[in-house]
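Notebook, p. 212. Picked up where the previous page left off. The plan for this session was modest: take the two constructs that came back from the sequencing core last week, fold each one, and keep the raw output in the notebook itself so nobody has to go hunting through shared drives later. Recording the first one now, exactly as returned: residue sequence, then the structure token string.
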Amino acid sequence: MRIALAVEYDGSGFRGWQKQPGGATVQDALQDALQRFATRPVSVVCAGRTDAGVHASGQVVHFDTDLDRCMHAWVRGANTFLPPAVAVRWAHAVAGDFHARSSAYSRHYRYLLINRPHRTGVWNGRVGWYHYPLALGTMQAAADHLLGERDFSAFRAAECQANSPVKIMRRAEIQRFGDLLVFDFEASAFLHHMVRNLVGSLVYVGQGKHPPEWIADLLAAGDRRLAAPTFAAAGLYLVAVRYLPHWGLPAAEETAFPAFFPELAGG
């Protein structure tokens, strides 16, 4: 049987998703919990390999097992053995040819940025921060250049292992809630550090260092050295992975993060 899980986690205390020597990754924690529940080895495959310090509210994984348990038991069993910073939200049986990564139609990442002169204490590790004033309209005009099928080489980390830098950007939207800026990006797939590199360059535009058209110039040049530095990991969340209806998975839910900031949203 192949099973898909939706997983959420606070990435602050982990060395990223991907299993590696020395442990302390989200994959290590999840596999260990599933193995303790199933009493046999379990290997999981994720939809998006998040970096150290990056969070998720809608990560999707799959694994194969010969253990016959109801789906709710997989949720309760995994959560019993998971650390407090990781939780399984649902489990669903899927077809044998389902693949959490390659079957995904799109991924939705959200970046939360506090924009005020002083840094945050309460939300440390949960948001990015930029102290200079940022112009929302100018940044949105720049983000509009990202839409469609594009070569994102200018926003690709040097160690990226993707076969192609060409991705389809379906959404690039920025909203302001008081001091909180919310960046939403949805694409067919993302390159290593792509969202954090996009945020860094959009922030430069918002500060007035470059006009909105600079983003189009960066895309055309395809040179990572010309773009802004990579932004901090703390504000980045994988909020949803979408699949076509024939896979039968629950609809992707997008957590309304501004609700976590009532003092910023005027609540």
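Okay, moving on. Second construct, recorded in the same format:
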Amino acid sequence: MSERSIEKFKEYIKKLNPIDDIIFRKMAENKEFCEEILRVFLQDSYLKVLNNKSQYAITNIDRRSVILDAYCELRDGKRVNIEVQNADNVNHQKRVRYYSSVLTTSLMKKGENFDNVPEVCMIYICNFDVFRENKSLYLIKRVIDGSNTEVDNGIKEIYISANISDGSALSELMEVFTKDDCYSDNFPVTSKMKYDFKYVKEGNKMTDAMRELYDIFEEESKEAWIKEGAINILLTLVKDGIISIEEAAKRANISVSKFEKYLNEQK
């Protein structure tokens, strides 16, 4: 690991915050972090996380599988999925609906009584106002039309607007999530972990988590170079029929499927 690479990595990591899934997923491996933020999201100062998993994969052989940013089991039996979303480029409500369905299905055993369907809470943190009503938090409820009687099927949806500042504890936490040099004594776990991730220690010493981030950085840098440089020439050669896709992928040192992805992007 060269000194030049470490310096580039330092600049790269300083631009990241917990709102970025690459950082959030590493922080979500820590139970105290999950507990600290969930106490704010669910407005429960005594909330306890029994188990937490980051990048929790739910495999669906016949259908689309999912990878949850953070999955937590709470002391009261609730299961919580926390997702961070920086880009407003998908149907967020349908994504939440699908994730909640896949998670619920994965928790049920064949033939199990419907009374045992677990309570699932979906928390969706956006770096924008998803419903454009200038609220830092949206709690979605099921009500009977005409009477406004609330009915509960065990699914709770919470959408958080990280870009809305309203003086609440939630918006203070979201500032830590989104602003480069923002730290808060009210959220010591989140602030300390963010600082530790963003500022690499002197020399070549890194924690295992930092080394994983460094490996991702190296891979992204490599892919960016390939895409912007040599691969453009190879794409032209393939389009002109001079070389095959297989030969081009071999020269670029990437898989055929990845090369085809680049080729499709230029169509």
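Notes on construct two before I forget. The mean pLDDT is 84.
Flagging for discussion at group meeting.
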